[in-house]
Backbone:
């Protein structure tokens, strides 16, 4: 009887509340849209291997890092059935996700958990990215920008009235801006973030690297 009661209790726990390293495709609560600050990526060792993003003729500001299915706490990953992305699909994403390796990684790690076919997943990611208005001073800075993390967040809120402070997180590498995360519901509408998506910057002022 005790084992039966324990089993029933475990089955009663909603799947969406679990913090899992893997998950089931299509079973998640919301999305996180990750906007990566390209100059920061290119300033690190990983950037040395990204010729298209960091050494090509185009200079990138915010780029699409990914659209990540999330639980209210934690997230699924690598839900299986990834298959191989067609070269044409990878190529089609490079204007906003300028790294073929990143496109493939995001599909295998996050896209497979969306429950969508690859073309539909990347279409959703592109639409979510296009829906966010980048504040003016972060579109193409030619000099370092110094700002409080909260100021960066406020500028995104002013440029995007549907967003709220509870639905945006600013992340840094040390004192440098790394990315901005925007939380969206499954229909790609703004919503509050879960408990583990939060600001991660040290200090009262951060540095935004210029385009390179």
Residues:
């Amino acid at each position: 009887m005790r084992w039966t009661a324990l089993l029933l209790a475990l089955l009663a726990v909603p799947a969406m509340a679990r913090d899992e390293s893997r998950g089931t495709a299509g079973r998640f609560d919301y999305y996180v849209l990750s906007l990566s600050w390209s100059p920061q990526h290119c300033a690190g060792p990983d950037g040395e291997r990204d010729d298209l993003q960091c050494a090509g003729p185009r200079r990138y500001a915010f780029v699409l890092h990914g659209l990540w299915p999330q639980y209210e706490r934690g997230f699924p990953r690598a839900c299986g059935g990834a298959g191989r992305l067609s070269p044409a699909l990878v190529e089609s994403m490079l204007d906003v996700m300028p790294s073929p390796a990143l496109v493939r990684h995001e599909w295998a790690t996050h896209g497979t958990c969306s429950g969508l076919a690859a073309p539909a997943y990347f279409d959703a990611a592109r639409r979510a990215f296009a829906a966010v208005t980048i504040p003016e001073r972060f579109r193409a800075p030619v000099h370092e920008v110094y700002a409080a993390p909260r100021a960066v967040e406020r500028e995104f809120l002013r440029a995007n009235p549907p967003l709220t402070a509870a639905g945006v997180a600013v992340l840094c590498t040390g004192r440098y801006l790394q990315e901005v995360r925007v939380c969206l519901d499954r229909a790609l509408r703004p919503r509050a973030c879960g408990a583990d998506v939060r600001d991660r910057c040290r200090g009262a002022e951060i540095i935004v690297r210029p385009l390179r």
